[in-house]
Amino acid sequence: MVWTSQDCSAPRWNAGSMADLAALFPGKQFISTVLEALETKTAMSGDLARRYLMRALMAGLIIGLMYVAYFSVLAAFSSADGDVGALVDIGRIVGSLVFGWALVFIYYSKSELLTSNMMIITIGAYYKQTTWSKSLRILGLCYLGNLLGGLLIAVLLRFSTLADGEVGTQMEHAVEHKISYLGEGAAGWGDLFVRAILCNFMINLAMLLVYNGLIKDDLTKSLVMIVSVFIFAFLGFEHSVANTVLFSIIGLQGGLEILPALGNIAIALLGNFVGGGLLIGLYYAYVNDQRRYDPETGRRLPGRRRG
Q1: What are phi and psi of 300, to 5 degrees?
Q2: Please, are residues 111 and 58 in contact by the beta-carbon 8 Å criterion?
Q3: Residue 38, SS3?
Q4: What would the pLDDT profile of 77-120 be if each residue is shown by its tens digit?
Q5: Closest Cα to residue 273, out of 100, 110, 114, 111?
Q6: Per the UniProt record, which residue ranges are transmembrane (predicted)?
Q7: What confidence tens digit (pLDDT) does each residue in 131-158 have?
Q8: What is the CATH T-level fold of the domain 26-287, as seen in this structure?
Q9: Packing angle of the helix pair 185-211, 101-108 (nearest 10 deg)
Q10: SS3 category, 239
Q11: Are 280 and 119 in contact (CB under 8 A)?
Q12: What pTM was estimated for this model as a whole?
């Protein structure tokens, strides 16, 4: 699977042209980086499937640990003396900032997160650098690993006091809220779906900025990822993997309704794919597709089909 210079590099433009391909299709570096990442993921999910699964497990473990930190911050502020309403709001802000580091840790530890892979496999499918069967294998292994990581942190918490008291209460309230969407009929399902779309839109918007080659320093990359996760955590967007991890934690504590939880995850998965796979992945693949244009004239090639 090779992404050649003929496919993605910007050719020279005649002096008389009004613009060059680099200006018309500025996402060349982003597409190239994504397809290189896809090639690695495809190889690992094949002959190195166990190692790929372990990378995905680490992402689930990181999300679980950062979720515990998030709810611990909420618990600390809600238990403090003073204006409870104001303290809870401050706790949500601080907790969301703490949770924002989850994506940074996942990115720099080379762990594998399902939701960012939704963007990558969609771009790969658009450019015919992969098949849907290989893409589904990547997503399936990644979600399984994320789930196993969530179960691992859930088991560890089961035999500790980290989720006791107010921390556990905050987690239970969050689970009740997430499950309540399913009991509100079409309006609740739609609300959940929209929140899932926006959640992965923010996640993959951050990855777009990280992959596009314009941001060179690690500090700025980290800030981009922190802000994107802060927005989804603070606004209450729905992340399928984070929900899976949270449900696993509460499930091992003995307080989870299984069917509504599965319904939440299913809708969140669909919404996450729309937000990351379609609104970011498919959109940026299409608007940066220069293959149908003559590099000398900039005109659309007659009868040229995509791919």
Answers
A1: -65, 135
A2: yes
A3: helix
A4: 988 877 767 788 899 999 999 999 999 999 999 999 999 999 99
A5: 114
A6: 56-78, 90-109, 138-159, 192-211, 223-250, 262-286
A7: 989 999 999 999 999 999 999 999 999 9
A8: Glycerol uptake facilitator protein (1.20.1080)
A9: 50
A10: coil
A11: yes
A12: 0.88
